[in-house]
Every structure is written in C-alpha cells, then in structure tokens.
C-alpha cells in the first residue's frame, strides 16, 4: 500500500512540474481577450494533450531512444517562440487580426507546444514501466487545472496592464520557448 502511495505522490509531483509550463504559457495566453468558455476549452484541450502525449510516449518509450525526446522539446520551444513573436508583433500592429489564435488549429498548436515535454517524460516512464493509467490521469488532471489557473490569472493581469498585456503575454511565451531551446545552443 505504501508503495502505491509513494508512486502516486511521485507522479503527482511530476505532473505538477510538467503542468507548470501549462500554467506559465496559460498566463501569457490569458492576456488575450478570452471569454470564460474559451478558457474552459483551452484547459480541457491542454489536459487532453497531457493525457495523449505521455500515453504515446509511454508506448514509444519501449522502442525509441532518448534523441526523440530531445527533438520533441526542441519543436515545443520553436512553437512557443512563434506564438510569442506573434503576440508581441500583434501589439504593435494597427489591426486586430492575429496569425495564431487559441481557436481551432491555433489551439491545437498551443496545446501541442505545451504538451511536448510530457511526451519526453512519458518516453522515460515507458522505459521504466510506470503504470499507464495513473500517469495519464495525473498528468491530464493537473495540467488542466494549472492551465485554467494560468489563463484566469492572465485575464486578471490583462485588466491591470491594458494594451500592453498582450506584449507581456508574448514575452512570457518567448521566454519559455527560449528556455526550452537554450540547451540546443
């Protein structure tokens, strides 16, 4: 019994650590003018990706090397850079159109960029034989809650900062994307 509790605690801590990027990126993305329904949908989508990506990683972990996990982190960093540049750029443009918005394909790219690191962790957990259901439940629930918290907090900050909030949100995404890419330089 204590072994099961220890494993759940370990997975919860891991899920919290992985969900921090969802919180951080959610904080930046929350500075868009997002209605509560969209915030709800974004949180669910990221939660689903935090279920799907480690599941694929767990399955692939038995067959693939560590290089693929590193590649996933690199792609996630690039996607966050693109989203961040787009948000900062749109602050200085006169029009209100955005290249990427958290709707449709933009939401899928956003969720994918935030969830790629959970693929890498799933890869590692697959090699070590972790319990699949516990991993995906912990990762999915924690990422969803942390995304909602980041988006709602970002929404509050947007009200305080006005027109500059989107630039700040973009800077947060840029910073997080650079953090993921620094090991590659």
Automatic annotation (TrEMBL):
A Pfam match is Mntp
Q: Where is the signal peptide?
A: none
Q: Where in the cell is it found?
A: Cell membrane
The protein's predominant localisation is: membrane
Q: Which HAMAP family match?
A: MntP_pump
- Organism, per UniProt? Neobacillus novalis
Identify this protein by name.
Putative manganese efflux pump MntP
Give the way it sits in the membrane: Multi-pass membrane protein
Q: Which UniProt keywords apply?
A: Cell membrane, Ion transport, Manganese, Membrane, Transmembrane, Transmembrane helix, Transport
Residues that span the membrane, as ranges: 12-32, 39-59, 71-92, 104-128, 134-154, 161-182
Would you tell me the Gene Ontology cellular component terms?
A: plasma membrane
Statement: the UniProt record of this protein carries the keyword ATP-binding = no
Give the family, as the similarity comment puts it: Belongs to the MntP (TC 9.B.29) family.
Q: What does this protein do?
A: Probably functions as a manganese efflux pump.
Is Hydrolase a UniProt keyword of this protein?
Answer: no
Q: Which domain of life is it from?
A: Bacteria
Example of a GO MF term? manganese ion transmembrane transporter activity
């Amino acid at each position: 019994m204590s072994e099961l509790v220890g494993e759940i605690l370990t997975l919860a801590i891991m899920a919290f650590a992985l969900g921090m990027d969802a919180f951080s990126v959610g904080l930046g993305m929350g500075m868009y003018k997002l209605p509560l329904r969209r915030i709800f949908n974004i949180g669910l989508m990221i939660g689903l990706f935090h279920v799907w990506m480690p599941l694929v990683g767990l399955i692939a972990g038995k067959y693939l090397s560590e290089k693929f996990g590193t590649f996933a982190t690199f792609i996630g960093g690039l996607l966050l850079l693109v989203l961040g540049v787009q948000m900062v750029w749109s602050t200085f443009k006169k029009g209100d159109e955005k290249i990427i918005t958290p709707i449709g394909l933009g939401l899928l790219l956003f969720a994918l960029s935030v969830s790629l690191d959970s693929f890498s962790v799933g890869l590692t957990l697959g090699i070590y034989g972790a319990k699949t259901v516990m991993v995906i439940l912990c990762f999915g629930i924690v990422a969803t809650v942390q995304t909602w918290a980041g988006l709602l907090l970002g929404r509050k900050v947007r009200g305080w900062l006005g027109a500059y909030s989107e630039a700040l949100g973009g800077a947060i995404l840029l910073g997080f994307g650079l953090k993921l890419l620094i090991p590659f330089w």
